[in-house]
From TrEMBL:
The lineage of its organism: Bacteria, Pseudomonadati, Pseudomonadota, Gammaproteobacteria, Cellvibrionales. PROSITE patterns: NA_SOLUT_SYMP_3 (PS50283). Gene3D superfamilies: Sodium/glucose cotransporter. GO terms for molecular function: symporter activity. Its main location: membrane. It is found in: Membrane. It is a multi-pass membrane protein. The keyword ATP-binding does not apply. NCBIfam families: Na_symport_lg. This is Cation acetate symporter. GO terms for cellular component: plasma membrane. It comes from Microbulbifer thermotolerans. Keywords: Membrane, Symport, Transmembrane, Transmembrane helix, Transport. PANTHER family: NA(+):SOLUTE SYMPORTER (SSF FAMILY), SODIUM/PROLINE SYMPORTER-RELATED.
Amino acid sequence: MDIQTLTFLIVGATFAIYIGIAIWSRAGSTHDFYVASGGVNPVANGMATAADWMSAASFISMAGLISFMGYDGAVYLMGWTGGYVLLALCLAPYLRKFGKFTVPAFIGDRYYSNTARTVAVICAVFVSFTYVAGQMRGVGVVFSRFLEVDITTGVIIGMAIVFFYAVLGGMKGITYTQVAQYCVLICAYLVPAIFISIMMTGHVIPQIGFGAELSDGSGTYLLDKLDGLSTELGFAEYTSGTKSTIDVFFITAALMVGTAGLPHVIVRFFTVPKVRDARKSAGWALLFIALLYTTAPAIATFARVNMIDTINGPDAQGTAYEEAPSWITNWESTGLIAWEDKNGDGKMFYSGDARNEMKIDRDIMVLANPEIADLPAWVIALVAAGGIAAALSTSAGLLLVISTSISHDLLKRNLMPNISDKQELRYARIASAVAICIAGYLGINPPGFVAQVVAFAFGLAASSFFPAIILGIFSKKMNKEGAIAGMISGITFTAAYIIYFKFINPAANTPENWWFGISPEGIGTLGMLLNFAVAIVVARFTSEAPKAVQEMVADIRFPKGAGEASAH
């Protein structure tokens, strides 16, 4: 059976499962739609959190980044992993005890201000749309290759699937769909990694194979071979970094604190019955996330060695285009791989200098990895299903945040306080539908490759939400004026910096022109510091928070009494 037929069968089967779950778990109330009635088992919630967390950037793009960037790509691995730990241990218990299941709801009540709530809604929608653009781009990449449709058609198909189970089931439908999606994506990630690790090093566990000797009898370690190939071909040594220390620090910090401010992950801690269960689900999620994140460097290395060998040939002199491996011709049709015969010899050659004749999109590395290694067709189809699962799972969570922010925080709490539960649910579904259409447009016209777009979203979250949440929990005297001024200044500065270097003047996007040597991917950390500074200064020169608010803050800083907090 050929790859396309298998892909249709496996992807179609997963879609049937997702839709079946959505029908089974249809939301009947706003409590179902927003937080699945707070009745999800901690283990299931851990899987759903992991699926929500491991987006297309984690599944499709992170290993691709590491494969192309080598050591420098580790900033994404460190930032996203460290960020989840920060969120799970330092913020989630307090937010869960406070009892507000959206970031705008927390900010609006903690800072006793509808203006603060509205600013938070705008920030949440802006961050979520930036993030979801990367997910839809990932859906389009997968569909364009494996279902042989163009990226636009692929995005539209993905929109239709997300529309069905997100609009119909809300958080209840999304949660149980994400449990299934986690099972699909983790199998799709680990199976080819295990296959290739055995083929290249003889080790079943990819994490061990990553640092082991090759099984070809040469006695050469895998990473030593890749370092040698990289320097011979004009690339930087794979295991050495080229980014400045300050940029590495700022990117890692932006990803970490941005994680802690991501609203679609925070809401996950309200879908379990008790505070104790929120802690348990955080631990389970960390275990489930670690399975993928510790495997990513191995996949990146396996894919890069095999890619160089198959393009440049055994004698490292290039491969005749007529004899090109099938994976190259397959991906050429998507426009994500291109060959230019610069010297007219009819041979493909890949390098990091003027000899290079190949243009390879880094987003394809994980998806193409089984084909590059010549694995069975069913493994290739499984990876396609995993990539779609990763993108759709996070897209659904983000779209729910957008709809919740609009229907619950903006309409119910601010503009239309007298609407009924049924009307609020209707508005939430309408908001989801509109958000899906906008997300689809952004997926068809993305502002960058998947992980880059997601990195921008984390920077925006870091510069807007994180200081407001931290100060809201740990500073009794922080007032509404400080929080509002901090959020506006932080996200405005960060967005302006990113937009200037990425869209207005991309030619100037070089280390020489960056402020303090900080790239757009890391500027969220500086935006966060600006947010903190502005909030603290403004709070010092304005009136203190009311005494009742200060007492409430003192209370939530001690997340005891499991089971006492509600998700209302």
